[in-house]
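Action item from last week, closing it out:
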Amino acid sequence: MKLPRSFCVALSVFCAIPAAFTSAYNAHPKLIVIVVIDQFRGDYLERYRDQFGEGGFRVFLDRGADFTDCNYDYTNTRTGPGHATLLTGSYTSGHGIISNEWWDPAKKKRVTSVEDDNTKLVGATGEGASPHNLMGDTLGDELKLATGGKARVFGVSLKDRAAVLPAGFAGDGAYWIDPRSGDWITSSFYRSDLPEWVRNFNGTHRAQKYWSREWKDADGTKLGSTTPRDGHDGTPGSFYEIVGSTPFANDYELEFAKELVLYEKLGAGEATDLLVVSLSANDILGHQVGPDSPKMRSMALELDRSLAEFFNFLGHQIGMANIWMALSADHGIAPLPETAKGLRLPAANVDGHALREQINSLLSKKYAKKDEYVIEMDYPVAWLSETAFAGDSRREAEAEIDVGEVMKQVGMTGYFTKSQLARDQVPNTEMGRRYAHSYSPEGGWYVLGVPPPFQVGITHGTDHATPYSYDTHVPLAFYGLAFLPGTYRTHAEPIDMVATFASLLGINPPAKSTGRVLIEALQPPHHSSSSTPPTLPPPTMPPSGGPQ
């Protein structure tokens, strides 16, 4: 792929400018862009490296600081917790988001991580969303606090949780799509009506051009299409379901992000602005076909092209010397069980619904009373019915242990109860720490099961939500004047991203942040008395003692 000339110019300017004093208070940099790719495993960047063009992922790989050993240090590797972790710099034990959804014993139903009874959707009908379940603030919140509200903060995704949790409490806007139509919507938590530019975007039916298109790989092989068809429930398929599982969804989302940069004038204010773009298509497809499908390869290569166009736009609009960027993911994905079994790995699809019935049957025999003791099974997590156990005079700690022991009988290798985690009664081991980091006071009574590796809790396709490397290993890479280009093999975690940005910007890290500043990837300080300003070293020739 040939690099656009305007991007080449931007890069040459980038390399000529010394690493000047940075500060959020005087808009140095003008804009931070965080790209989160939903379900993008850490090994993908190396797997497809020689197939990427020059302006997309290679911006981070060749001209940025790339941490190859970045892993989440918790077990609940799902979208909601992942986005909360990235932007708060803390794990679930700090931010409280335990899953995408959990059982609410007061409402006696599942609730989502961002649903809020006190808000309404704006641009569609229904209950709105907010970050009210977050127990800590975000990088964007700290930017707003530090600059007296001058910084502008936005979150964009196809999914509500992936837009709302990164935008935080003080964000100027979080936008996601109406699943059926593809129109962009928000919540009354942020504003009472859509801005004119969003209404115009929806009004010109931008989503329509992504219907009835063929998806082909670089060799011209057809991999799919967005021709309208019935969805899984037999009704006409939604935009989210049909377009969302193709590379066209990334193009659509980045098209919206460009409009946001233009009309909200990001990078043009007195303080550093923040834009978090969470790209959802990889996840929607990945659950269906797994990480090793030709479709996933094509999805990665098409996203590389889309990101190159987006970065070229940013370079033209704001100037790459004025922008810092980060790349990461909210979680990885397990191999498709049939693929793993073909290599003689002990993999399996597990029916979560059948597993719940089996657990309840065994508990009913134990207590000599038939009841729904486990009210929901979100593999490998069991949500308990406090009402059912109350009838047998079981207290929370007892009930959770009973369920945990039955979970071991039906295939789990171990378990951790909410009561144990709340009292920090976990073994001093790597696995014990990961489960301790997964604790939340939300969700009533629950048990976190320890599943066998390569076992997923759905009957078809594959999933995540385990403490194993295929789910915890994600990219973490930075690009900008403040960073020393190179490949870094030192251990890093997603919580380190906001700690690093906050330190460079001269602001407080989020209140619950526990990450470290990745000092090995930072440019040495520039002293104005130097006769010759330092320039960025070539990415392939790191200084002695620097990245390896």
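Closing note: Residues 294-317 form the longest helix (24 residues).
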